[in-house]
Design goal:
The chain is mainly α. Helices cover 78% and strands 0% of the residues. Helix 4 crosses helix 11, helix 6 runs parallel beside helix 15 and helix 13 packs antiparallel against helix 14. The longest helix is centred in the N-terminal third of the chain and has 43 residues. The two termini are 35 Å apart.
Length: 351
């Protein structure tokens, strides 16, 4: 659909507000789910995209994720002590640094099989049990969510992005099968995951008294009420992203489809606030070259880690561990920028 200048200005302003307000206004940060829901509703209203199909999608899409969060929360409530013992034993056997690297690498590389959601739920439960500071927790979660986002794209199981790509490329000339993305992205993803695991090894151990206090506080997070509230917040968050993605889609179609390969790579930083599957659906066509496909997908999955709304694992972990937008962005934005530039250079050299 064609947008008027007024609509374009409003949508650009809305994008700016989504990027800035959660980082600068405390009340917005405290009510991030509601804020994004309102922004999504405004975006859909501005572009006139309201329909019963969209409402149905917005109500249905969050259900599976919410149920996964709810069930996992109840399971971890039941087996919390066993998980704590296993985590403590692992740290004592191989050391803290090796444990941190192991967490990032294993969750990142298995997320394409166990799904990004399950990987994030496991991460959110393990992190509070580790003898690291609050800052260390945030660092580990950010590194791990980048790794999970990278790994999950490798199959149609891991996350919707992989499903959409394989569906679009299943015919000529690519005839993409289950292993198509592993073949074309596997080594780049593995390299990124190893780098993130090495970064995790730099996180420092916390002293015992403070760690004991953290574990005591974490116990309060396993009440039925807290689990239900967290699941409800995730539901509203995902619903908000569905509305925001559909509302901004006409603007994305107008602008993104006319950009060059190099421009698209960096404009995909929008994946930090938009569902990367939405952008992929716009950018990827059956006749795309494998070179361009690799560039686009790497930029989408890296950008998705830069802000909390960028990926489902970010949302799940930030909700469980009460990580705010400023804490996340302080670590993830510089890291994401370095990864974007680094991969841009590596991909140009390798492809």
């Amino acid at each position: 659909m064609d947008l008027s200048v007024f609509q374009i200005v409003l949508l650009c302003l809305l994008i700016l507000l989504v990027l800035v307000l959660p980082l600068s206004v405390h009340k917005v940060e405290e009510n991030l789910e509601a804020f994004l829901f309102v922004c999504g509703a405004i975006a859909v209203s501005v572009t006139g995209m309201w329909s019963w199909d969209l409402i149905k999608t917005a109500l249905e899409d969050p259900i599976k994720i919410t149920l996964a969060v709810l069930v996992a929360g109840l399971l971890f409530k039941r087996f919390h002590r066993a998980v704590q013992k296993a985590t403590t034993k692992t740290v004592s056997l191989i050391g803290l640094r090796a444990t941190l690297a192991f967490i990032v690498l294993v969750l990142g590389m298995t997320s394409s099989v166990i799904t990004a959601i399950i990987a994030a739920l496991i991460l959110a439960e393990i992190v509070p049990l580790l003898p690291i500071s609050r800052k260390g927790r945030v660092q580990l979660v950010v590194y791990s969510c980048f790794a999970i986002g990278m790994g999950a794209v490798l199959t149609s199981i891991g996350e919707p992005l992989g499903t959409i790509v394989l569906s679009k490329l299943k015919g000529a000339p690519h005839y993409a099968d289950f292993w198509f993305l592993v073949e074309h992205l596997g080594w780049f993803v593995l390299g990124g995951n190893i780098l993130l695991a090495l970064l995790a090894m730099r996180i420092q151990q916390e002293n015992a008294p403070q760690q004991a206090q953290m574990l005591q506080q974490d116990g309060a997070e396993h009440t039925v009420k807290s689990i239900a509230v967290r699941a409800a917040k995730v539901y509203l968050f995902v619903m908000a992203l569905v509305l925001l993605g559909d509302g901004l889609k006409p603007l994305a179609v107008m602008t993104i489809s006319h950009l060059s390969e190099n421009s698209l790579y960096f404009i995909n930083v929008l994946s930090a606030i938009l569902d990367n599957a939405t952008l992929a659906a716009i950018e990827i066509t059956p006749d795309i070259s494998t070179r361009n496909l690799t560039f686009l997908l790497m930029s989408l999955i890296i950008s998705g880690g830069m802000l909390i709304p960028g990926n489902i694992p970010n949302i799940i972990c930030a909700s469980k561990l009460k990580i705010n937008s400023k804490e996340w962005a302080k670590i993830a934005v510089p890291l994401g920028a370095v990864l974007m530039v680094g991969y841009f250079i590596v991909l140009h050299a390798a492809l």
